[in-house]
Specification:
With about 375 residues, the protein is α/β, with parallel strands linked by helices. It has helices spanning about 55-60, 110-115, 160-175, 195-205, 220-225, 240-250, 270-275, 295-300, 315-325, 340-350; strands at about 1-5, 15-20, 25-30, 45-55, 70, 75-85, 95-100, 100-105, 125-130, 140-145, 150, 185-190, 210-215, 230-235, 255-260, 275-285, 305, 330-335, 355-360. The chain contains 10 helices and 19 strands. This is Alcohol dehydrogenase.
């Protein structure tokens, strides 16, 4: 049952941009609005203010993840709290939040009862946003799991927060999982992308790391330089050239202390591991079918390989505040209205913009755009 601290009057239907058929354009459709009375104890109903378009949305569209169609697309949602369940005490009506991506963590397993940063790995969780019968954030009203949501700082706009709901939290966690100290070297594969340009800044401005940035696109290389990477290497020159460049930059230690792989290119893991010094760390972030690293990297150079998935609720909130405090620049392209989304998806497919994209869904939401003291 829902807790209502004020009368909530909602329309019976809402507009939503959905995946109706794999490998076909998204469709703008009319669907039922969620019912306040149906909210479970930990759920929160938000009015979407702005939503982000993530590169992995293309994988959803291709059927790369198990989905029940039709489903509303998008897992980067922000909005204003309008109602919440009976056991949800973290929020009040009017709070501005970033939606978490997981639903229904069990609360009983080792991950749920271990360190907070592991809770979202719960193997008994119900589902993720835009999967398992759960709609995503390309709609006007959305039910989220309040335990996974994070408050947006007052000095941040919804449009800036939206891309951080996946790209920001994922890049933040990846840099944390590199387990480095100030002054050490980090390699970033796919450094000029939506995640990469954020990872460069998190590494340098927040953690004091030195960055070897690797990308394979002219725009990506340029953006890597603009974001402050110490060394920028062109992956198109081949693995040997990238390794030589990394070794030249890092001197006697012979490579970076850790690499995070954000690009998903078939050769990125091999190159990313090759630029790591002996006994260093390689962190896979991009979602791919297989990660290919020559076994000799493990046996003769003792490279430690791990994966990194999103971030926890607490880590996400820390990231949002760090973006404001350290003046992290989000390379953001802001578009207006749900109807424009199929066109923006086409732009993403054709690599027609740099960085990230945010779609303003509710123009009347307080602080929806940067300005008036908000980033």
């Amino acid at each position: 049952m829902a807790t209502q601290t004020q009368t909530v009057t909602l329309p019976e239907t809402q507009q939503a941009v959905q995946i109706v058929e794999f490998n076909k354009p998204h469709e703008l459709r009319t669907i039922p609005t969620p019912s306040v009375s149906d909210l479970r104890p930990h759920e929160v109903l938000i009015k979407i203010a702005a939503s982000g378009l993530c590169h992995s949305d293309l994988e959803y569209l291709k059927g790369g993840f198990p989905l029940d169609l039709p489903v509303t697309a998008c897992h980067e949602g922000t909005g204003t709290v309008i109602a919440f369940g009976s056991n949800m005490h973290r929020f009040k009506v009017g709070d501005r939040v970033v939606a978490g991506q997981t639903f229904g963590c069990c609360g009983d397993c080792e991950d749920c009862n271990g360190p907070e940063h592991s809770r979202h790995y719960c193997q008994n969780r119900e589902t993720m946003m835009c999967a398992g019968g759960r709609n995503g954030a390309f709609q006007e009203y959305l039910v989220i799991d309040g335990r996974e949501a994070s408050k947006i700082p007052d000095a941040m706009s919804f449009a800036t927060a939206a891309p951080l709901a996946c790209a920001g939290m994922t890049a933040w966690r990846a840099v944390l999982n590199a387990k480095l100290k100030s002054g050490q070297w980090i390699g970033i594969m796919g450094s000029g992308g939506g995640l990469g340009h954020l990872a460069i800044q998190f590494a340098k401005k927040v953690h004091g790391l030195k960055v070897v940035a690797v990308d394979a696109r002219d725009d990506g290389l340029a953006l890597s330089k603009e974001m402050g990477a110490d060394v920028v290497l062109d992956a198109r020159k081949g693995k040997d050239a990238v390794v030589e460049g990394a070794k030249a930059a890092t001197g006697k230690q012979g490579g970076v202390d850790a690499t995070i792989e954000l690009s998903g290119h078939p050769t990125a893991a091999e190159t990313g591991a090759a630029i790591v010094r002996n006994h260093g760390r390689f962190v896979q972030v991009a979602i791919v079918d297989r990660v290919s690293i020559p076994v000799l990297e493990f046996l003769f150079r003792d490279i430690h390989v791990s994966g990194s998935l999103m971030a926890s609720q607490k880590e996400t909130e820390e990231m949002l505040h760090a973006v404001v405090k350290h003046k992290i620049h989000v390379e953001n392209n802001i578009f207006d209205g749900l109807a424009v989304i199929p066109k923006v998806v086409e732009m993403l497919q054709n690599v027609q913009y740099r960085g990230k994209a945010a779609i303003v869904v509710d123009e009347n939401a307080v602080g929806v755009r940067p300005g008036d003291g908000r980033v």
